Amino acid sequence: MCRTKFVGSQQQVNLVIPHLGVEMRRVSNSLLVIPVMLFCAAVVLGQTPAKPATGHKSEDFAAVMKKIRDTWVQEFNAGHADKVAALYADEAVLMRRNGSVHSRDSILAELQRSVTAEARNYTVQSLRAESSGDIGYDTGIYNENFSHHLAEGNYLMVVKRINGVWKIVAHAAVPNPRQK
Fold it and tell me: Of 37, 83, 85, 142, which is most buried, counting CB atoms within 10 Å of its CB?
């Protein structure tokens, strides 16, 4: 940051660069004031914001989401509600046709109920997956076979990287209306 002020007939130039811990003052009547001011402007305008250090290796988000999706479907179809629930964050929310459940423990109970109701052959097809930083989403279509009907619909999964691990923080499954 550069400040110029006049003290009597003299001009005082203060140059402060806080992140470098530099502070310079110069009192002058000379033409050096203009080059110093230009230098200050170049320093201020030439600064670019530092990229945050995330400590994470670059990863392919599409591959991360594919692994989460594949694990979710495989473990659900195998009847392992506990392994599916492990994909969710502690304070996640699951939204389904019959309401919302909050927290991993409640999600486990809801998934166990679905598995017990003999929901099988769950399939998903991702239509889009994107991320920005530690947040991402995946959306697509799903099919689920029940003994008395086939459920089809759309899903949205929001994930967040928590302590270096991607976890589902919000998951919505919206069924299509049943055909009569």
Answer: 85
Distance CA 96, CA 75 (A): 19
State yes or no: pLDDT of 134 exceeds 70: yes
pLDDT at residue 140 above 80? yes
Burial 32-56 (b: 16+ CB within 10 A, else e): ebeebeeebeeeeeeeeeeeeeeee
CATH class of 61-175: alpha beta
Q: Name the band, by pLDDT with cuts 50, 70 and 90, for residue 88.
A: very high
* 66 Rama class: left (phi>0) / alpha (psi -120 to 50) / beta: alpha
Q: Write the CB contacts of 163 (distance below 8 Å, at least 6 apart in sequence).
A: none
For the chain, which residues make up each domain, given as ranges?
2-46, 61-175
